[in-house]
Write a structure and sequence with these properties.
200 residues; alpha+beta; SH3 type barrels; 48% helix
Length: 200
């Protein structure tokens, strides 16, 4: 069996999709339990250590079950039934899938006109093109990452105010935005237009 770099990369990203949502969910739940423990009028010595030991043992037990994909899908369905835990898990999983999943959400980079009078623009990524379930027409969802932060904003923007960018390296553009424009953009084969020409 010939193993290529693409195959290894596929396994790596698949591992991310499985591990990160689970680890993130466990981290949030443990943080919440520690916060609840801090609200007690007294400190119970050893509770934190017990929580960590039990959590590690629980993770080890779950890992031993991940022999077949069907077992993981069963555990995932179990997580989704738990109040709040299912919400946390799906949120983290969807975020990871947006970056490394088969249907990447941050692949359509655009330039959005925010202020027509002062000609103010902002770089972002289209993440939702069909908003019909929200009874919203003629608008698309555009995600704007914050500079020097891991968060961002989602705006519903009129399609006429969006200019597609002829730049095919979405990861590089995300880094450019997140760094506040400090990171340099790499030259791509498709980048053959000037900034002013893209706005016409």
């Amino acid at each position: 069996m010939k193993v290529t770099f693409a195959t290894i990369a596929t396994y790596f990203f698949r591992g991310l999709l499985i591990t990160v949502p689970l680890a993130g969910t466990i981290y949030v739940v443990i943080s919440f339990l520690e916060w609840m423990d801090s609200l007690l009028p007294f400190r119970t010595l050893g509770v934190g250590i017990i929580v960590i030991l039990v959590s590690l043992t629980f993770i080890g037990y779950l890992t031993s079950l991940f022999i077949a994909r069907s077992l993981f899908e069963w555990f995932e369905r179990l997580l989704l039934r738990l109040p709040m835990v299912g919400l946390i898990y799906t949120s983290i999983k969807d975020l990871m899938a947006a970056f490394v999943g088969e249907e990447k959400k941050f692949s359509k980079s655009v330039l959005v006109k925010l202020n027509a009078e002062n000609e103010i623009y902002r770089l972002g990524f289209i993440t939702a093109e069909d908003l019909s379930l929200l009874k919203i027409n003629n608008l698309v969802g555009v995600y704007f990452p914050h500079s020097y932060n891991i968060s961002g904003n989602l705006y519903l923007v009129a399609a006429k105010n969006i200019t597609p960018i002829d730049y095919d390296n979405s990861a590089d553009l995300m880094k450019f935005i997140a760094s506040g424009g400090v990171s340099e953009l790499l030259v791509t084969e498709n980048k053959d237009k000037e900034f002013g020409e893209n706005l016409l």
